[in-house]
Amino acid sequence: MDKQTQPTILFFDSGVGGFSVYKETKQLLPNCHYLYCFDNEYFPYSEKTEEEIIQRTLSICHKINQDFPLDIIVIACNTASTVVLPVLREYFSIPIVGTVPAIKPAAEISETKHIGLLATKGTVKRAYVSDLIKNYASYCIVEKIGSTKLVEIAEQKLHGKSTDLITLKQELFAWQSIMDLDTIVLGCTHFPLIKEEIAQCLPQVKYFMDSGKAIALRVKNLLSNAKVQSKISEKNLIFCTQKFNYDSQFENTINLWGFEELNILTVNE
Ligand code: DGL
What's the pLDDT at 5? Predict the structure, then answer.
Protein backbone atom coordinates (compact mmCIF):
# COMPACT_ATOMS: atom_id res chain seq x y z
CA MET A 1 0.00 0.00 0.00
CA ASP A 2 1.63 3.29 -1.00
CA LYS A 3 1.10 6.55 0.85
CA GLN A 4 -1.02 7.99 -1.98
CA THR A 5 -3.68 5.34 -1.54
CA GLN A 6 -3.80 5.31 2.21
CA PRO A 7 -7.21 3.92 3.26
CA THR A 8 -9.12 5.66 6.06
CA ILE A 9 -10.38 3.26 8.71
CA LEU A 10 -12.63 4.24 11.59
CA PHE A 11 -12.59 2.30 14.85
CA PHE A 12 -15.62 2.97 17.02
CA ASP A 13 -16.38 2.01 20.63
CA SER A 14 -18.11 3.46 23.68
CA GLY A 15 -14.72 3.85 25.38
CA VAL A 16 -11.10 2.75 25.23
CA GLY A 17 -11.92 -0.95 24.77
CA GLY A 18 -11.73 -0.62 21.00
CA PHE A 19 -8.01 0.06 21.39
CA SER A 20 -7.55 -3.66 21.97
CA VAL A 21 -8.85 -4.23 18.43
CA TYR A 22 -7.25 -1.15 16.85
CA LYS A 23 -3.85 -2.18 18.25
CA GLU A 24 -3.89 -5.50 16.38
CA THR A 25 -4.90 -3.87 13.09
CA LYS A 26 -2.36 -1.07 13.44
CA GLN A 27 0.35 -3.65 14.05
CA LEU A 28 -0.60 -5.58 10.93
CA LEU A 29 -1.29 -2.52 8.75
CA PRO A 30 0.83 0.33 10.11
CA ASN A 31 0.38 2.67 7.13
CA CYS A 32 -3.39 3.16 7.06
CA HIS A 33 -5.06 6.44 8.03
CA TYR A 34 -6.70 5.63 11.37
CA LEU A 35 -9.56 7.40 13.10
CA TYR A 36 -10.69 6.29 16.55
CA CYS A 37 -13.91 7.56 18.09
CA PHE A 38 -15.23 6.75 21.54
CA ASP A 39 -18.71 7.72 22.67
CA ASN A 40 -17.86 8.75 26.23
CA GLU A 41 -21.08 10.81 26.43
CA TYR A 42 -23.08 7.56 26.39
CA PHE A 43 -20.50 5.25 28.03
CA PRO A 44 -21.09 2.49 29.14
CA TYR A 45 -23.23 0.83 26.44
CA SER A 46 -23.64 -2.34 28.55
CA GLU A 47 -27.19 -1.63 29.75
CA LYS A 48 -28.36 0.84 27.08
CA THR A 49 -31.34 -0.15 24.92
CA GLU A 50 -30.76 -1.56 21.45
CA GLU A 51 -32.52 1.48 19.93
CA GLU A 52 -30.23 3.93 21.75
CA ILE A 53 -27.10 2.06 20.66
CA ILE A 54 -28.26 1.89 17.02
CA GLN A 55 -29.10 5.60 17.01
CA ARG A 56 -25.78 6.68 18.55
CA THR A 57 -23.62 4.45 16.38
CA LEU A 58 -25.36 5.47 13.19
CA SER A 59 -25.24 9.22 13.98
CA ILE A 60 -21.55 9.11 14.94
CA CYS A 61 -20.42 7.04 11.94
CA HIS A 62 -22.50 9.25 9.62
CA LYS A 63 -20.95 12.44 11.04
CA ILE A 64 -17.37 11.16 10.78
CA ASN A 65 -17.91 9.83 7.28
CA GLN A 66 -19.15 13.27 6.20
CA ASP A 67 -15.99 14.96 7.42
CA PHE A 68 -13.50 12.19 6.61
CA PRO A 69 -14.71 9.88 3.81
CA LEU A 70 -14.16 6.38 5.15
CA ASP A 71 -13.04 3.19 3.43
CA ILE A 72 -13.87 0.79 6.26
CA ILE A 73 -15.71 1.08 9.58
CA VAL A 74 -14.75 -1.27 12.40
CA ILE A 75 -17.29 -1.43 15.19
CA ALA A 76 -14.77 -2.30 17.90
CA CYS A 77 -17.50 -3.02 20.42
CA ASN A 78 -19.33 -6.31 20.93
CA THR A 79 -22.30 -4.65 22.63
CA ALA A 80 -22.92 -2.47 19.57
CA SER A 81 -21.95 -5.05 16.94
CA THR A 82 -24.52 -7.56 18.16
CA VAL A 83 -27.28 -5.08 17.21
CA VAL A 84 -26.09 -2.47 14.69
CA LEU A 85 -24.40 -4.38 11.90
CA PRO A 86 -27.48 -4.90 9.64
CA VAL A 87 -28.48 -1.23 10.00
CA LEU A 88 -24.98 0.07 9.21
CA ARG A 89 -24.58 -2.29 6.27
CA GLU A 90 -27.81 -1.02 4.79
CA TYR A 91 -26.87 2.63 5.37
CA PHE A 92 -23.25 2.61 4.14
CA SER A 93 -21.84 1.16 0.95
CA ILE A 94 -18.34 0.64 2.44
CA PRO A 95 -17.41 -2.55 4.36
CA ILE A 96 -18.53 -2.66 7.98
CA VAL A 97 -16.51 -4.98 10.21
CA GLY A 98 -18.11 -6.05 13.48
CA THR A 99 -16.58 -7.44 16.65
CA VAL A 100 -18.48 -10.40 18.05
CA PRO A 101 -17.54 -12.87 20.81
CA ALA A 102 -15.02 -15.52 19.70
CA ILE A 103 -17.33 -18.42 20.62
CA LYS A 104 -16.30 -20.71 17.74
CA PRO A 105 -12.51 -20.67 18.35
CA ALA A 106 -13.11 -20.95 22.10
CA ALA A 107 -15.26 -24.06 21.67
CA GLU A 108 -12.62 -25.56 19.39
CA ILE A 109 -9.63 -24.88 21.65
CA SER A 110 -11.24 -25.90 24.94
CA GLU A 111 -10.05 -29.30 26.14
CA THR A 112 -12.79 -29.74 28.74
CA LYS A 113 -15.53 -28.30 26.50
CA HIS A 114 -16.59 -26.11 29.40
CA ILE A 115 -16.24 -22.46 28.42
CA GLY A 116 -17.25 -19.06 29.78
CA LEU A 117 -18.51 -15.97 27.98
CA LEU A 118 -17.51 -12.78 29.78
CA ALA A 119 -19.24 -9.81 28.19
CA THR A 120 -21.47 -6.84 28.97
CA LYS A 121 -24.97 -7.23 30.36
CA GLY A 122 -26.38 -6.37 26.93
CA THR A 123 -24.19 -8.76 24.94
CA VAL A 124 -24.90 -11.87 27.05
CA LYS A 125 -28.63 -11.59 26.43
CA ARG A 126 -28.61 -10.84 22.71
CA ALA A 127 -30.22 -13.26 20.26
CA TYR A 128 -27.07 -12.89 18.11
CA VAL A 129 -25.01 -14.49 20.88
CA SER A 130 -27.51 -17.30 21.56
CA ASP A 131 -27.31 -18.13 17.85
CA LEU A 132 -23.49 -18.15 17.93
CA ILE A 133 -23.59 -20.59 20.85
CA LYS A 134 -26.23 -22.78 19.19
CA ASN A 135 -24.33 -22.87 15.89
CA TYR A 136 -20.73 -23.21 17.09
CA ALA A 137 -20.64 -24.41 20.70
CA SER A 138 -23.62 -26.73 21.03
CA TYR A 139 -21.23 -29.48 22.16
CA CYS A 140 -19.91 -27.35 25.07
CA ILE A 141 -21.25 -26.18 28.41
CA VAL A 142 -21.28 -22.40 28.11
CA GLU A 143 -21.34 -20.24 31.26
CA LYS A 144 -22.16 -16.55 30.95
CA ILE A 145 -21.35 -13.50 33.06
CA GLY A 146 -22.61 -10.08 32.00
CA SER A 147 -20.90 -7.22 33.83
CA THR A 148 -20.89 -3.44 33.57
CA LYS A 149 -18.48 -3.05 36.50
CA LEU A 150 -15.70 -4.87 34.64
CA VAL A 151 -16.10 -2.44 31.74
CA GLU A 152 -15.74 0.48 34.15
CA ILE A 153 -12.67 -1.08 35.80
CA ALA A 154 -10.97 -1.54 32.41
CA GLU A 155 -11.87 2.00 31.31
CA GLN A 156 -10.47 3.42 34.56
CA LYS A 157 -7.24 1.48 34.16
CA LEU A 158 -6.44 3.37 30.96
CA HIS A 159 -7.20 6.60 32.73
CA GLY A 160 -4.45 5.79 35.22
CA LYS A 161 -6.60 4.44 38.10
CA SER A 162 -5.51 1.30 39.92
CA THR A 163 -7.54 -1.86 39.26
CA ASP A 164 -10.19 -2.66 41.87
CA LEU A 165 -9.35 -6.33 42.43
CA ILE A 166 -12.01 -6.82 45.12
CA THR A 167 -14.83 -5.83 42.76
CA LEU A 168 -13.21 -7.84 39.99
CA LYS A 169 -13.18 -10.96 42.20
CA GLN A 170 -16.81 -10.39 43.22
CA GLU A 171 -17.89 -10.09 39.59
CA LEU A 172 -16.11 -13.37 38.71
CA PHE A 173 -17.11 -15.18 41.91
CA ALA A 174 -19.53 -17.60 40.20
CA TRP A 175 -16.69 -19.09 38.13
CA GLN A 176 -14.05 -19.41 40.84
CA SER A 177 -15.22 -22.89 41.87
CA ILE A 178 -15.71 -24.25 38.32
CA MET A 179 -12.42 -26.06 38.11
CA ASP A 180 -12.83 -27.46 34.59
CA LEU A 181 -13.61 -24.05 33.07
CA ASP A 182 -10.50 -23.91 30.86
CA THR A 183 -11.45 -21.26 28.28
CA ILE A 184 -12.92 -17.78 28.54
CA VAL A 185 -14.22 -15.65 25.71
CA LEU A 186 -13.38 -12.01 26.37
CA GLY A 187 -16.61 -10.88 24.68
CA CYS A 188 -16.14 -7.18 25.36
CA THR A 189 -13.29 -5.25 23.79
CA HIS A 190 -12.48 -3.67 27.15
CA PHE A 191 -11.59 -7.00 28.72
CA PRO A 192 -8.27 -7.77 26.96
CA LEU A 193 -7.05 -4.59 28.70
CA ILE A 194 -7.51 -6.32 32.09
CA LYS A 195 -6.70 -9.88 30.99
CA GLU A 196 -3.87 -10.31 33.52
CA GLU A 197 -6.12 -9.22 36.39
CA ILE A 198 -8.93 -11.55 35.23
CA ALA A 199 -6.42 -14.41 34.96
CA GLN A 200 -5.29 -13.78 38.55
CA CYS A 201 -8.87 -14.31 39.76
CA LEU A 202 -9.40 -17.48 37.68
CA PRO A 203 -6.15 -19.48 37.81
CA GLN A 204 -7.77 -22.61 36.31
CA VAL A 205 -8.34 -20.87 32.96
CA LYS A 206 -5.86 -21.84 30.25
CA TYR A 207 -7.16 -19.94 27.21
CA PHE A 208 -8.46 -16.38 26.87
CA MET A 209 -10.01 -15.72 23.48
CA ASP A 210 -10.70 -12.34 21.90
CA SER A 211 -11.42 -11.21 18.36
CA GLY A 212 -8.66 -8.60 17.84
CA LYS A 213 -6.35 -10.62 15.57
CA ALA A 214 -9.22 -12.01 13.49
CA ILE A 215 -10.47 -8.48 12.87
CA ALA A 216 -7.04 -7.27 11.81
CA LEU A 217 -6.87 -10.09 9.25
CA ARG A 218 -10.40 -9.34 8.06
CA VAL A 219 -9.48 -5.67 7.49
CA LYS A 220 -6.33 -6.68 5.60
CA ASN A 221 -8.33 -9.03 3.44
CA LEU A 222 -11.01 -6.41 2.68
CA LEU A 223 -8.36 -3.86 1.73
CA SER A 224 -6.75 -6.20 -0.75
CA ASN A 225 -10.03 -6.25 -2.71
CA ALA A 226 -11.33 -2.75 -2.00
CA LYS A 227 -11.09 0.29 -4.20
CA VAL A 228 -9.41 2.67 -1.79
CA GLN A 229 -10.14 6.38 -2.00
CA SER A 230 -6.95 8.01 -3.17
CA LYS A 231 -5.54 10.60 -0.80
CA ILE A 232 -2.25 11.90 0.44
CA SER A 233 -0.90 10.82 3.79
CA GLU A 234 -2.89 12.27 6.71
CA LYS A 235 -2.39 12.10 10.45
CA ASN A 236 -4.35 9.73 12.63
CA LEU A 237 -7.11 11.35 14.67
CA ILE A 238 -8.91 10.48 17.89
CA PHE A 239 -12.36 11.78 18.86
CA CYS A 240 -14.63 11.62 21.88
CA THR A 241 -18.23 12.86 22.12
CA GLN A 242 -17.94 14.83 25.35
CA LYS A 243 -15.20 17.03 26.75
CA PHE A 244 -13.50 15.61 29.84
CA ASN A 245 -10.38 16.30 31.84
CA TYR A 246 -7.81 13.68 31.15
CA ASP A 247 -4.50 13.18 32.88
CA SER A 248 -1.00 12.74 31.51
CA GLN A 249 -1.30 8.93 31.68
CA PHE A 250 -4.23 8.99 29.25
CA GLU A 251 -2.40 11.45 27.04
CA ASN A 252 0.65 9.18 27.00
CA THR A 253 -1.53 6.20 26.11
CA ILE A 254 -3.12 7.89 23.11
CA ASN A 255 0.29 9.21 21.99
CA LEU A 256 1.71 5.72 22.26
CA TRP A 257 -1.06 4.46 20.01
CA GLY A 258 -0.25 7.03 17.35
CA PHE A 259 -2.68 9.85 18.14
CA GLU A 260 -1.97 13.44 19.11
CA GLU A 261 -4.58 15.62 20.83
CA LEU A 262 -8.14 14.48 21.57
CA ASN A 263 -10.83 16.09 19.38
CA ILE A 264 -14.47 16.61 20.35
CA LEU A 265 -17.12 15.33 17.96
CA THR A 266 -20.52 17.02 18.20
CA VAL A 267 -23.22 14.46 17.51
CA ASN A 268 -26.57 15.60 16.10
CA GLU A 269 -29.19 12.92 16.65
N1 DGL B 1 -16.25 -2.22 24.63
C2 DGL B 1 -17.59 -2.55 24.48
C3 DGL B 1 -17.89 -3.98 24.11
O4 DGL B 1 -17.09 -4.59 23.46
C5 DGL B 1 -18.66 -1.84 25.25
C6 DGL B 1 -18.54 -1.68 26.71
C7 DGL B 1 -19.63 -0.81 27.27
O8 DGL B 1 -19.68 0.36 26.91
O9 DGL B 1 -20.45 -1.30 28.03
O10 DGL B 1 -18.90 -4.51 24.40
Answer: 72
Q: Are 132 and 138 in contact (CB under 8 A)?
A: no
Which 3 state secondary structure label does DSSP give 62?
Answer: helix
Does ligand 1 lie within 6 Å of residue 78's CB atom? yes
Distances (CA, A) of 113 to 103, 105, 118, 169: 12, 12, 16, 24
Residue 148 burial class via C-beta count within 10 angstroms: exposed 0-12, middle 13-18, buried 19 and up: middle
The alpha carbon dihedral of 213, 188, 167, 245 has a sign of positive
Nearest-CA residue for ligand 1 atom 9 is 46
Return d(Cα 159, Cα 19) in angstroms, integer.
Answer: 13
Q: What is the mean pLDDT of residues 170-184?
A: 98
Torsion sign, CA atoms 156, 19, 213, 49: positive
Instruction: Give Cα separations from 45 to 1, 81, 121, 207, 243 (angstroms).
Output: 35, 11, 9, 26, 18
Cβ–Cβ under 8 Å, residues 244 and 41: no
Question: Where are any strands of DSSP class E within the chain?
Answer: 8-13, 33-38, 72-75, 96-98, 114-119, 141-146, 183-186, 207-209, 237-240, 262-264
Instruction: Please tell me the predicted confidence (pLDDT) of residue 267.
Output: 86
Using alpha carbons, select from 211, 205, 181 the residue that is nearest to residue 119: 211
CA-CA distance, 16 to 54, in Å (whole number)?
A: 19
Sheet of strand 207-209, all strands in order from the earlier edge strand to the far edge: 141-146, 114-119, 183-186, 207-209
The ligand 1 atom nearest the CA atom of 119: 10
Helix (H, G, I), strand (E, B) or coil at 94: coil
| 54: number of Cβ within 10 Å | 17
The model's pLDDT over 187-217, given as tens digits with 9 standing for 90+, comes to 999 999 999 999 999 999 999 999 999 999 9
Q: What is the pLDDT of residue 34?
A: 96
Q: Is 17 in the pocket of ligand 1 (CB under 6 A)?
A: yes
